[in-house]
Amino acid sequence: MELIPVSSLRICLDPCLSPSTCSTKRLNEGGRVRRKLSCGFPLAAKRTAGALSEGLKKELRKDLSRMLWTEAAIKAIERKAGSAKYKNLWPKAVLEALEEAINQCRWESALKIFGLLRKQHWYQPRCQMYTKLLMMLGKCRKAEQAGLLFEVLLSDELQPTVDVFTALANAYGLCALFDQAFAVIDDMKSVYDCKPDVHTYSILVSCCFKHRRLDLVKQILAEMSYVEIECSKVTYNTLIDGYGKAELFELMESVLFTMIESATCHPDVFTLNSFVWAYGNYGKIDKMEKWYEEFQLMGISPDVRTFNILIRSYGKAGMYQKMESVLNFMKKRFFSPTVVTFNTIIDIFGRAGNIDKMDEFFLKMKHQGVKPNCITYCSLVNAYSKAGKLYRVDSILRQVENSDVVLDTPFFNCLISAYGQSGNVDKMSDLFLEMKDKNCEPDHITFATMIQAYNANGMTTAAEDVESKMLAMQSCLAIQSALRLNLTKRPWNLREAIKVLNDVSVLNDTGMLVPDC
What pTM does this model have? Predict the structure, then answer.
């Protein structure tokens, strides 16, 4: 049933207007016949739609303006970081630029801006800022910089808090440097008399699961039991998620039963999502559906992420009808598809070679105002390359160039692979050079793909040149590993750590390490 616009309804219910008003004509001053404003529904609906469209355009312009302003602000503050004369800048500008750089995980920019912040006359060191920076460095897998940042914190004569130590342990844990991570925990208890809490241990458990160190998970749980720290809901959910991803379904279910029996930590939607993902990812669709219903009986309602997991699981199992039935259910329950929903569907149909269906959902994605991201374009490029439709890859590249999508290394790897497999090595080489312009560091996948493409086309000299670059990158990583080992010494010696990398790195005024290689 089509709803009548409110403005039209108001006109129709006005007792002062008679039905004849809609068709009344009168002469204007020039003698022409002019129809008075009609109360017709199409006109009102058109105005309403126009107003909505105009409002949407304004919002998009605001978002773009905000994005451009943020980018300009970060670059402007970053330029001033290299100079010693800016010591009394406006606090709001510096702090906002630093906050944006942290949120976007632009670690080099964040550290430069932080160096500028420390030069300001009004600067007062705070542990909260160091915690944010350490968490960002952990996400970026920059354990060396995290260790050096901790030294800067000590030089500011701050007493590290539990949150600071937790963020530092997280940075080492995410980089699989568990000796350093546990050393941080030991320092908390012995050197600084600062006891780790349940959040600290939950973070460590999560890091161990990410690197499949189940032996360390048992060790952490034993230590928690020894110091009488009870698991929180976050800890239980982390354990369920980790055991599910490791295919340890019995352990996963036993943790759930412990949660149910607990007086304070009951299962929630995160628990539901972990169960659905675990069984769905490994093709146990019956188990997945059974537990989905069990959680419903517990009174736990699904969210958008639950539906995204169901769509992915059904798609991976080739059950496309059930996948579309989940989409219909979302529509009936007024759950709007997110960028993850569309990315999942596009990737599923792309891998299945169903290009028409993939294109259909890509168009639907844009029509519904959901902005594609790098993951979307990666799936499209891979699918077109696999189907031999390289001209469509050219089209995607043009779309990306005309958008504000932030490009990353995996996207360039997809493009390099697509053009390399088609034999277009010139385009592949151009994309490799473009990576540096876009601040995307090549990884081992980039080099391996290019070497394979050059060898396939008989260009052995070019392949050897790329291989030498790859070896240079590996030697750089080896030197950085030497720095990591240096950081395990107690007490940490900043000068010795810097000496290890003095040939391959530059050190800015903050004492932060920014590698050249």
Answer: 0.73
